[in-house]
Structure formats: structure tokens, C-alpha cells
């Protein structure tokens, strides 16, 4: 099936929005250090751009959970494919994700991370699709709430493609 990508948020718009989120984090974490946990692979682009705009001391780590594979519908199965390199006990943690869709992945990961006793644990996502929520998840920092469309770019993929697009686009199937 052929597909076309229509721009939803341009590179400039996304960049400006990420700066706003970073400024909010800079205010909220003044005098503290923040430990960012990027969710591979989709959250990595957003996390790097966010980290570059944060001015309090930053450390980073990554973890990977199973997600959509080649399909555009969630399997509901969450599997830890790669765990963190470092303990998070006593740290101020922000989990950084590309998109919250059904909420299954993040509700599972957040519960798991909470048991490791961080000082604080927040969730930052570039995109939120509230219409699709199955499991409730508290989002602390959100780039954009979007309608139920399949989007790519800025780390988000369709069949592993388009992650490298420097903007957020809607996939249109022809
Ligand atoms: P959830 O567990 O349903 O919230 O799934 C979240 C994951 O599904 C994200 O991390 C993405 O990998 C993937 N996903 C959900 N919606 C989209 C989309 O519109 N484009 C690309 N990936 C998506
Ligand atoms: Mg993902």
C-alpha cells in the first residue's frame, strides 16, 4: 500500500514547542538534577532535542519496550526488551516518550519504575492521542494533543520508516 505524508507540525513549530516544555522543566526542577529516561526507539529524537534545551544538570538513560511492530494497532502486550543501565532510586526521573496512544505501554512502565523508588517520577510525551486511551495515564508534560490519526516523524515510525523526518506528519493511505 502506498502512503503519503502530510505535515501536521513543521520542524520550526516542533522546535518551538520543545523549547517551551524545556523551559517549564527548567522552572519545575530549579536547583535539582533531572534524570531523563527515553523510551526507545520512538522517544529518542524528542529526548535529545528536549535535553539540549534543559539548563538544569541532566543525565540520561534509555529503555525499550515492545510496541506496534509492523502494524498500526496495539497488541496490548508489553515486554521489556532493554532495561535501564543505571538504578533510579532517589533520583528525579522524567520518562520521555514519543506518543501516548492506548496508554498500555506507559502505564505498565511507570508502575514498574515506581517500584524502584525514584525520588519523583514524571511523564513527558511529545504527542497524546486521548481518544484512543484504554488505560489511564497521568501526563505531566505534553507537546500536542492530536486526533486519532497515524503520525510519523520525530522518532515515530510507520513500519520502521520515517523516524528521521524532522517534522510530524500524518500518514495518508492511498
Ligand atoms: P500505547 O501503549 O498504545 O500507548 O502505545 C504507544 C506506542 O505506540 C508509542 O510509543 C508508539 O510506538 C506507538 N504508536 C501509537 N500511535 C502511533 C502513531 O500514530 N504513529 C506511530 N507510532 C504510534
Ligand atoms: Mg514507542
Main-sheet strand order equals: 4-3-2-5-6-7
The figure for the number of domains is 1
Number of distinct helices: 3
Using the coordinates above, name the CATH class. Alpha Beta
Largest sheet: 6 strands, mixed
Anisotropy-based shape: globular
Q: Radius of gyration over alpha carbons? A: 16 Å
Average per-residue pLDDT, rounded, comes to 94
Give a count of the beta strands, DSSP E runs of length 2 or more.
9
Helix content: 10-25%
Uncertain runs with pLDDT below 50, 5 residues or more? none
CATH topological fold name: Rossmann fold
The assigned structural class equals alpha/beta
Structure description:
- The chain is an alpha/beta fold and 174 residues long.
- The protein has a single domain, classed as Rossmann fold.
- The protein is built from 3 helices and 9 strands, in the order E-H-E-H-E-E-E-H-E-E-E-E.
- The protein has a 6-stranded mixed β-sheet with strand order 4-3-2-5-6-7, sandwiched between helices.
- Helix 1 packs across helix 2.
- The longest helix has 18 residues.
- The radius of gyration is 16 Å and the shape is globular.
- The chain starts with a strand and ends with a strand.
- The relative contact order is 0.22.
- The mean pLDDT is 94.
- The site of magnesium ion has 4 residues, from loops.
Amino acid at each position: 500500500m502506498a502512503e503519503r505524508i502530510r505535515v501536521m507540525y513543521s520542524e520550526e513549530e516542533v522546535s518551538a514547542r520543545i523549547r517551551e516544555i524545556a523551559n517549564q522543566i527548567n522552572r519545575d526542577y530549579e536547583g535539582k538534577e533531572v534524570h531523563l529516561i527515553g523510551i526507545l526507539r520512538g522517544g529518542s529524537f524528542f529526548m535529545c532535542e528536549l535535553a539540549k534545551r534543559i539548563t538544569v544538570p541532566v543525565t540520561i538513560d534509555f529503555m525499550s519496550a515492545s510496541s506496534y511492530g509492523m502494524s498500526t494497532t496495539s497488541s496490548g502486550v508489553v515486554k521489556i526488551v532493554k532495561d535501564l543501565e543505571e538504578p533510579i532510586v532517589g533520583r528525579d526521573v522524567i520518562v520521555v516518550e514519543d506518543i501516548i496512544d492506548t496508554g498500555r505501554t506507559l502505564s505498565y512502565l511507570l508502575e514498574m519504575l515506581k517500584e524502584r523508588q525514584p525520588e519523583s517520577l514524571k511523564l513527558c510525551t511529545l504527542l497524546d492521542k486521548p481518544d484512543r486511551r484504554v488505560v489511564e495515564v497521568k501526563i505531566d508534560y505534553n507537546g500536542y494533543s492530536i486526533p486519532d490519526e497515524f503520525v510519523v516523524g520525530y522518532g515515530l515510525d510507520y513500519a520502521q520508516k520515517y523516524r528521521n523526518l524532522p517534522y510530524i506528519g500524518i500518514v495518508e493511505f492511498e
